[in-house]
Amino acid sequence: MGVYTRTTGRLIQNDPINGTQQFWNAEVNGKSVSIHFGKVGTPGHRGSREFPSIEAAEKFLAQRVRQKLEEGYRPVLSSK
């Protein structure tokens, strides 16, 4: 039996005031959520958090994705 894995894909937010873009993406790997974020063109930052169950990890990730979309992040449809 394999480990449950799911990724959000890359989300981008444009900041027209200072002309920068921020990226955010996350992955559920078993009961752990790993997040990678930062300014486009930089290595960014990484962090992870362990949860008591896969369901709790999925719930946390769903909340974070919803929050990012509300903040103006949008999915990247294709990589260039």
Commentary on this structure:
The chain is an alpha+beta fold and 80 residues long. The protein has one helix and six strands. Strands 1, 2, 3, 4, 5 and 6 form a six-stranded antiparallel sheet that branches. A hairpin with a 5-residue loop joins strand 4 and strand 5. The N and C termini lie far apart (35 Å).
What's the name of the CATH homologous superfamily? WGR domain
CATH class: Mainly Beta
If helices are DSSP runs of H or I spanning 4 or more residues, what is the number of helices?
1
Tell how many strands the DSSP assignment holds.
6
Beta-strand fraction estimate: 35-45%
- Helix proportion: 10-25%
Are there runs of 5+ residues with pLDDT below 50, and where? none
CATH architecture assignment name: Single Sheet
Which structural category fits the helices and strands? alpha+beta
Question: What's the number of domains?
Answer: 1
* Outline: elongated
In CATH, the topology is named q64v53_bacfr protein fold
Largest sheet: 6 strands, antiparallel
Mean of residue pLDDT?
A: 90
- Report how far apart the termini are: 35 Å
Helix and strand pattern: EEEEEHE
Our Rg estimate from Cα atoms comes to: 14 Å
